[in-house]
UniProtKB/TrEMBL annotation, chain A:
Keywords: Amino-acid transport, Cell membrane, Membrane, Transmembrane, Transmembrane helix, Transport. This is Amino acid ABC transporter permease. It is a multi-pass membrane protein. Gene3D superfamilies: MetI-like (1.10.3720.10). It comes from Nocardioides furvisabuli. Residues 15-205 form the ABC transmembrane type-1 domain. Belongs to the binding-protein-dependent transport system permease family. HisMQ subfamily. It is found in: Cell membrane. The chain crosses the membrane at residues 20-41, 53-75, 81-100, 120-138, 183-208. Signal peptide: none annotated. It holds the Pfam family BPD_transp_1.
Automatic annotation (TrEMBL), chain B:
Belongs to the ABC transporter superfamily. GO terms for molecular function: ATP binding. Residues 18-252 form the ABC transporter domain. It comes from Nocardioides furvisabuli. The lineage of its organism: Bacteria, Bacillati, Actinomycetota, Actinomycetes, Propionibacteriales. This is Amino acid ABC transporter ATP-binding protein. Its main location: membrane. InterPro entries: AAA+_ATPase (IPR003593), ABC_ATPase_HisP-typ (IPR030679), ABC_transporter-like_ATP-bd (IPR003439), ABC_transporter-like_CS (IPR017871), MetN_ABC_transporter-like (IPR050086), P-loop_NTPase (IPR027417). SMART domains: AAA. SUPFAM superfamilies: P-loop containing nucleoside triphosphate hydrolases. Keywords: Amino-acid transport, ATP-binding, Cell membrane, Membrane, Nucleotide-binding, Transport. CDD domains: ABC_HisP_GlnQ. It is found in: Cell membrane.
Length: 216, 258
């Protein structure tokens, strides 16, 4: 394990870099995915069409293609940003489609009578959603959202490989291909880094699941 | 607090409040509402009765536009129903609705069920909304269970909470769609008692129900529907003892046998 021990600082910075890609993508994809899910159940037909178009296109497109579009397509349209920003934005867009579908399945698990009763007392669409439907949908949504986000954690390596650099994956690649360390110890170190993140997230998820279960 | 003090129901008794004119509604090929003309005056209690699938629920639901109509007009208190958006939400706040399946908000306490509308729609302060909600819960006999969740209450109790939740908005009219038909027999009376009480206090009510006892004590008028149309309208006494249409005779013959 010498290559790991000797390069702990590199690993540490890669770990932080991965965490930052993951953190931003987590927040961004949850917000964007919730918005798209709201579109998909909205009373406005054009918003519904946009929402389902978004999901169909993004979900059926490989992540690498989404990233290519961001990093090379957008500059052709005159939009310029760092690879890091493009990478994170691509991962947010890609993950939002899955977040949307997880939330929508949760919304469908809430009986139609709940939304009807909310409308009947005069709550407009947004309040019906935020006060009545989403809080109840949350319970059915947490487990699938958890899987979606853990898949995103792993996809962050694709973003790293894509040229963002500096993340856990890139540290591994750098130590092996550029500096010639042997693969098994280096990649074991990388794997441990990802494992720490996903296991911590899994534990957090279990806590959240218990919380929403109690809060009916 | 009584309905008279809290809402304008007793003022202008006898004026038209809900007016449906030539209302038509289709579900695909099915003509669910045919040429519906119906006027409900302030303070009036109208019972809607008829065989399954005759359009009673649909009629009820068009009055707060949970169901849209194809043509015709519906007026509430002199105003046509708004089509959508904020105005529609504001209209729905004026029309109380009680469902067969209660539909209490499962993630909120009984008290929160009743205060949600007043706080979020009327902008009432939480303390005032709580106070008013407790008065209403007192009135329907559930005040001691205010901190519980819906699932912890019996069906009859849940339905009484649903009535309190609708009343909390100070509606001009209350719609009831078979409020007791999902209830065990021993709980039906406790809900009907609350409804009779409301009727006596002057609330305008449209009630879909087959409870003839309620119709006889509380209703001013019975509207009989079949196949999407209003076939007969009469006082409860006349309707039950001396129905004029064959459809109504046939229908009453069936329900009286049970
Ligand atoms: N959303 C809908 N889509 C299609 N058809 C519907 C819909 N809602 C009601 N219908 C149909 O419209 C007709 C009238 O239904 P409605 O629920 O108003 O009857 P009802 O008199 O309330 O019957 P019940 O006594 O069974 O409650 C029925 O034939 C029903 O199948
Ligand atoms: Mg019905």
């Amino acid at each position: 394990m010498d290559p790991v021990i000797d390069n702990l600082d590199l690993y540490w910075s890669g770990f932080l870099r991965s965490l930052s890609i993951i953190g931003w993508s987590l927040v961004g994809s949850l917000l964007l995915g919730t918005l798209i899910a709201a579109f998909r159940v909205s009373p406005v037909a054009s918003l519904r069409a946009f929402g389902s178009g978004w999901v169909t296109v993004v979900r059926n497109c490989p992540l690498t293609i989404v990233l290519f579009f961001m990093a090379f397509g957008l500059p052709e349209l005159g939009v310029n940003a760092s690879f890091y920003l493009f990478g994170v934005a691509g991962l947010i867009i890609y993950t939002s489609a899955f977040v949307c579908e997880a939330i929508r399945s949760g919304i469908n698990s809430v009986s139609a009578g709940q939304a009807e009763a909310a409308r009947a007392i005069g709550l407009p669409f947004t309040l019906t959603l935020t006060q009545v439907v989403l809080p109840q949908a949350l319970r059915a949504t947490v487990p699938p959202l958890g899987s979606v986000q853990i898949a995103m954690f792993k996809n962050s390596a694709v973003v790293g490989a894509f040229g963002v650099g500096g993340d856990l994956y890139s540290v591994g690649r750098n130590l092996t291909s550029a500096q010639g360390f042997s693969y098994i110890p280096v990649l074991t170190g990388v794997a441990i880094g990802y494992l720490v993140i996903t296991l911590a997230a899994g534990a957090l998820l279990a806590v959240i699941e218990r919380k929403v279960a109690i809060a009916r | 607090m009584t309905a008279q003090e809290s809402s304008p129901v007793s003022a202008g008794r006898g004026e038209p409040l809900v007016v449906l004119k030539d209302v038509q509604k289709h579900f695909g090929q099915l003509h669910a509402l045919k040429d519906i003309d119906l006027t409900v005056t302030r303070g009036e209690v109208v019972v809607v009765i008829g065989p399954s699938g005759s359009g009673k629920s649909t009629l009820c639901r068009t009055i707060n536009r949970l169901e849209t109509i194809d043509s015709g007009t519906i007026m509430l208190d002199g105003q046509p129903l708004p089509e959508e958006g904020k105005e529609l939400a504001a209209l729905r706040a004026e029309v109380g609705m009680v469902f067969q399946s209660f539909n209490l908000f499962a993630h909120k306490t009984i008290l929160e069920n009743v205060t949600l509308g007043p706080i979020k729609v009327r902008g009432m302060k939480k303390a005032d909304a709580d106070k008013r909600a407790m008065e209403l819960l007192e009135r329907v006999g559930i005040a001691h269970q205010a901190e519980k969740y819906a699932a912890q209450l019996s069906g009859g109790q849940q339905q009484r909470v649903a009535i309190a939740r609708a009343l909390a908005m100070d509606p001009k009219v209350m719609l009831f769609d078979e409020p007791t038909s999902a209830l065990d027999p021993e709980m039906i009376k406790e809900v009907l008692d609350v409804m009779v009480d409301l009727a006596e206090q002057g609330m305008t009510m449209v009630v879909v129900t087959h409870e003839m006892g309620f119709a006889r004590t509380a209703a001013d008028r019975v509207v009989f529907m079949a196949d999407g149309a209003i076939v007969e309208e009469n006082t409860p006494e006349e309707f039950f003892t001396n129905p004029s249409s064959d459809r109504a005779k046939d229908f009453l013959g069936k329900i009286l046998k049970h």
